[in-house]
Amino acid sequence: METPAKIYDVGIIGAGAAGLTASIYASRYQLSNIVFGTLWGGEIANASVIENWPGDRSVTGAELTKRMVDHARHLNAEIRPDRIIKVIKNGRHNFDLVTEAGDKVAVKEVILSTGTRRRHLNIPGEDKLAGRGVSYCATCDAPFFREKITAVIGGGDAAMTAALHVALFSPEVYLVVRRDDLGGEPIWREKVRANPKIKILFQTEVTEILGDQTVTGIKLSRPYGGQDSLSLSGVFVEIGADPDVVLAEDLGVELDSAGYIKVSEEMRTNLDCVYASGDATTGNAHLDQIISAAAEGGLAARSIFWHLTQEKSKPGFLKRLLS
């Protein structure tokens, strides 16, 4: 096999906040880079409203995603809507990134910004009715439930913001919370409790999603209003996510006990020329916010710049650069 005509300095797998920021910084360091991702913006794209991104008191996920993509493209990054299914170590040019279509793209260094995958309830009816009343994206699907009763499953920030968004369309939203209180940021708790359309069911789990062709209701682990089931048309599952580390595992990247990619302060993994950034890593103390993912992406790009221009990085280089 011939060596590909073009070899990129950096191949970035994932087009969320971490991956797009890594691209922006790589371009500013004059490193040729290419970004792969089937969902541009990652979890940002599914956010109905974002109120903690500095400089924007309130912005939609779609708008913030567009700005990040436009910024990266303005700096001549290539962004491809392809999924990488394998990363092959190749001594002649370090790595081949293999797309789902079978194309190979040669890169010198890799940044894994693969993010997380939404958790499922794993209960009867969920898989059968996925896309027919069961949704994992309130921003995408809430408008389809205009004037219909719905439920949101979960008690953290994602569930609360989803419930608030769904309540813009649905006349009645049940927020089913396994714990005895809401988690997440106080501001979202206040907004949810103040919304008359949202009814909170604490210490309750959904045990089954009912329906034949479409969702008709849910079964509950404890009665609500004297009933052990609720009649409704839509179920939004917002119970968190797990790190997407399939490519990392295949490469031999070291993970921690919870399955997150271990990274150094320079965003390096245990493998030479392989870096990671974003929600799939141990680098953000599981803050899992846009700002922390973006910071890791920028740091990973700078680490690669140092590596490529200095032949190899040395322990503690970041502290020396900042001193």
- CATH H-level superfamily title of the largest domain: FAD/NAD(P)-binding domain
Could you tell me the strand content as a percent range? 25-35%
Category from helices, strands and their pairing = alpha/beta
User: The CATH topology of the largest domain is what?
Assistant: FAD/NAD(P)-binding domain
Radius of gyration from CA coordinates: 22 Å
Key descriptive features of the protein:
323 residues; alpha/beta; FAD/NAD(P)-binding domain; 2 domains; seven-stranded mixed beta sheet; five-stranded parallel beta sheet; 17 strands; 25% helix; elongated
Short description:
The protein is of the alpha/beta class and 323 residues long.
Ordered list of secondary-structure elements with their pairings:
Blueprint: E1 7-13, H1 17-28, E2 33-36, H2 61-74, E3 78-80, E4 84-90, E5 94-99, E6 104-112, E7 116-118, E8 134-135, H3 138-141, E9 150-153, H4 157-166, E10 173-176, H5 186-194, E11 198-201, E12 206-210, E13 217-224, E14 227-231, E15 234-237, E16 241-243, H6 246-251, E17 274-276, H7 290-310, H8 317-322
Parallel strand pairs: 1-2, 1-6, 2-3, 6-17, 8-15, 9-10, 9-15, 10-11
Antiparallel strand pairs: 4-5, 5-6, 7-16, 12-13, 13-14
Helix pairs in contact: 1-2, 1-7, 4-5
